[in-house]
Specification:
Length: 260
């Protein structure tokens, strides 16, 4: 792998819960790089460690050992304002269940990260219009979450994750609460943003359809990397990539360590 445009480095990451006989190893020395502008998928069975991995990168939980480096800086060294800046500006987080505030409009939910960093919505109006257009949510900007469909809510949540132009967007099962139609709409939008804006997205998913939009997929089994798939974006369709994903998922379930 050419690491000249590496944006994120995960090096020997481990996470252990509990002690002695009650010890659980959620991550067992995972290492990989994320390149700038790529759409990376993380797949694995429930309990494989994929969400723990994402939350370590997001600094929601602290790894037991190893390190995460963003643009050459070890995130474990961030404290105070540096940590707040990392969480607020360097990464964007897209949750499975939207996590919108019910008493705020879509516009207010999107601009919440701006307000937390002293930026007024008025000063960012052009950015708001642009991201709303890209995610096809301009018509719901003045609506409350109760007035939106599930798909619209998740696209509003995606706009909130993107509004501060973070270095990387972390998405945790973003299609998990959506039907097939809205899942496809969301993935089409995220894929276009990744491609056109060269935005780096790292997505945890169990959905092979969603994963087929990615440029690369890492499969995790029992806290370790099991396999990697790369899609030839110039020649391989998402349908063909989907078939390869399903094949690896079948092996993953069977515990095979074969490399395809």
């Amino acid at each position: 792998m050419n690491t000249n445009n590496r944006i994120l480095q995960v090096d020997g990451l481990t996470k252990i819960y509990g002690k002695d006989n009650n010890k659980t190893e959620a991550l067992r020395g995972i290492s990989f790089d994320v390149l700038e502008g790529e759409f990376l998928g993380i797949m694995g069975a429930s309990g494989s460690g994929k969400t723990t991995l994402l939350n370590c990168i997001a600094t929601m939980i602290k790894p037991s050992s190893g390190k995460v480096v963003l643009r050459g800086k070890d995130i474990s060294t961030f404290t105070g304002s540096g940590l707040a800046n990392y969480r607020g500006k360097k990464i964007g987080y897209l949750f499975q269940e939207f996590e919108l505030l019910d008493n705020l409009t879509a516009r207010e939910n999107i601009t919440l990260p701006l307000a937390l960093h002293g930026i007024t919505g008025k000063n960012a109006e052009n950015d708001i219009r642009q991201i709303a257009s890209k995610l096809d949510i301009a018509e719901v900007l003045n609506k409350f979450p109760s007035q939106m469909s599930g798909g619209q809510k998740q696209r509003v949540a995606a706009a909130r994750a993107l509004i501060l132009n973070p270095s990387i967007v972390l998405a945790d099962e973003p299609t998990g609460a959506l039907d097939n139609k809205n899942s496809k709409i969301l993935m089409d939008k995220l894929c276009a943003i990744s491609d056109e804006d060269h935005k780096t997205i790292m997505m945890v998913t169990h959905d092979a359809n969603a994963a087929s939009y990615c440029s690369r997929i890492l499969f995790i089994q029992d806290g370790r990397l099991f396999h990697e798939l790369r899609r030839n974006m110039a020649t391989e369709t998402s349908a063909s990539f989907y078939k390869r994903i399903v094949t690896v998922m079948a092996q993953l379930g069977g515990g095979s360590a074969n490399v395809l």
